[in-house]
Design brief:
Blueprint (H helix, E strand, L loop, with lengths): L4 H11 L1 H10 L7 H13 L3 E4 L6 H11 L4 E5 L6 H5 E6 L4 E6 L6 E5 L6 H13 L1 E4 L2 E4 L5 E6 L12 H4 L4 E4 L5 H12 L12 H11 L6 H15 L13 E3 L3 H17 L7 H12 L4 E2 L1 H5 L4 H11 L4
Parallel strand pairs: 1-8, 1-9, 2-5, 5-8
Antiparallel strand pairs: 3-4, 6-7, 10-11
Helix pairs in contact: 3-11, 10-11, 11-12, 12-14
Length: 329
């Protein structure tokens, strides 16, 4: 198959023009956090759900809400609590006495952007109801099945500090999130700006600059981005090195990995790299695109052993070792 890189590049340049516009609009409400905003766009373009981890007050909720505003999409925030039921999420059947029949009452999950706040606070039943919606992109209430609107994106937050009264997400469920993003504190200058913005009246009004249709069009264009076989092999090497580090000469991490990344990691690395190239307005993928999304795609998919925990070695450290060792094409 012949690829016309020049034509693809020109098309992507044209199609990705809205990225700068969207980023500018979001930065009216969000100070700094460039990394988080970029990753939210990658998830949006690659049609993948995102797990956000960070201490309270780092604008996680605000970022998702602002993104929905700028895209003219429906946003719902659901606070996960220990007493939440699946019906509170997806909806239920209600008996209408007038008409003597059951009617469907849809839950808050019927939106484009779902912010699942503190997902690890709710029991497994509720988590699995949400994860079914994420995977199948449809909801069954009674005997009826409803398709969810596109784009449909779940952004779940979890607080890394408090572990009392939480239900940790099982590995198989965490694997369904395309990216896991760790959010850090803002810099001193950024925090000064945040303080001024919140005590003054200069909070920027966020307008809708993109429509959901534009996002779906961008997704179709993103699929055309050229990925060379060398890059594909590079992605496979990274993922396989998490499973059999010995074969790739990363002997020092053999005792630290209890199990490696699943095939979902391979798919998401490729999709993430394409989305990153799209954001950078390029019609082809370079190794740097793969490296840029590697940590976010693999962080929650590489499980560490007790030895690693004892030595305080995180999965990020292991992934970094692998990236340093594997030859870049």
């Amino acid at each position: 198959m012949q690829y016309d890189i020049k034509a693809i590049n020109e098309k992507i340049q044209k199609e990705s023009a809205f990225v700068d516009l969207l980023t500018m609009e979001i930065s009216k409400a969000i100070v700094g956090q460039k990394y988080m905003i970029e990753r939210l766009l990658i998830g949006l373009l690659a049609n993948g759900h995102i797990l956000l981890e960070g201490v309270p007050g780092l604008a996680k909720t605000l970022a998702v809400k602002t993104l929905a505003q700028a895209i003219q999409a429906k946003f719902q925030r659901i606070q996960f609590t220990p007493d939440l039921l699946p019906a509170d999420l997806v909806g239920t059947l209600i008996y209408n006495q007038k008409e003597s029949k059951f009617q469907t009452k849809k839950g808050p999950i019927f939106a484009n952007f779902i912010l699942a706040d503190e997902i690890n606070r709710s029991p497994a039943k509720v988590q699995s109801a949400l994860l079914e919606a994420m995977q199948e992109r449809q909801i069954t209430i009674g005997e009826e099945t409803f398709k969810l609107d596109e784009p449909f994106l779940v952004l779940a937050t979890q607080n890394p500090i408090e572990q009392e009264g939480t239900y940790p997400l099982p590995e198989a469920q965490v694997d369904r999130f395309m990216l896991k993003i760790k959010i850090d504190y803002p810099s001193k200058e950024e925090e000064l700006q945040i303080m001024r913005q919140n005590i003054g009246a200069q909070n920027g009004e966020v307008k809708a600059v993109v429509s959901p249709k534009d996002i779906l069009k961008a997704r179709a264009a993103m699929n055309e981005i050229y990925m060379d076989e060398k890059i594909e092999r590079y992605i496979l090497d990274i993922v396989f090195a998490t499973r059999t580090p010995k074969n790739y000469g990363v002997d020092n991490v053999v005792q630290l990995i209890s199990y490696g990344a699943s095939p979902r990691a391979t798919i998401n690395l490729a999709l993430g790299a394409k989305a990153y190239a799209f954001i950078k307005r390029r019609g082809y993928v370079i190794p740097e695109d793969v490296r840029a999304v590697s940590l976010d795609v693999l962080r929650h998919r590489v499980a560490v052993t007790y030895e690693a925990e004892a030595e305080e070695v995180s999965s990020e450290h292991i992934i970094q070792e692998i990236l340093n060792k594997i030859e870049v094409p």
